[in-house]
Amino acid sequence: MTDDRVLPRAVLWDMDGTLLDTEPLWGRAMEEFARGIGAEMTPELRNATMGNSSVDALTKVYEAARVPESGRDFEADEDAMVARVLELFATDLRWRPGALSALDLVAGAEIPMVLVTNTVREVTDVMLETLGRDRFVATVCGDEVAAGKPEPHIYRRAAELVGFCASECLAFEDSPVGAAATHAAGVPAIVIPSAIPVPPKPTYTYRETLEGLTLDDLAAVFAAR
Predict the structure, then answer these.
(1) CATH fold for the domain made of 23-92
(2) Residue pLDDT, tens place only, 186-197
């Protein structure tokens, strides 16, 4: 029997909130940082920083605390944030529901996978010990492109690394910032909101969880287009 399904040429995975349940831990670290510089981590501020690159997230907290530009030490504060996040990950790092089976499904179909994350390389390399470094043909981090999500650079770079057009790839994302990056890059996405709603775009397909994901679900994204 001929399989007429059109599957993605590559699958591009977001990490935080999509594969690993790290958003609560990032939230805790961000709250501690905000409190330390005199800002209140309101739900609105936390939502605004979710899925951001380190520079973007720190900038929003600096602005909330009214820290003048001359008093913003991005390098030192990012180093401190990374150290704190790694402490938290060492004791409470968990998979998102269905994520491990979803990775196995795509690997079993021999579709190359790329990890595409706004998280800095130093943290990503630690996370890959849990995710399985060998699962991915490449990884792209937020500190390795001109600008992280929601800009399109990180997804364009991922497609370039696997040698396919962005429109032939499929992304998985959980946040408004990450999903916006896929749309800007022309990558269709399956969106599984983890903490806050993701406004609709014509290139998004929504799921509540990765549990029960099938190859037919991946093919349906391209059939619908």
Answers:
(1) DNA polymerase; domain 1 (1.10.150)
(2) 999 999 998 889
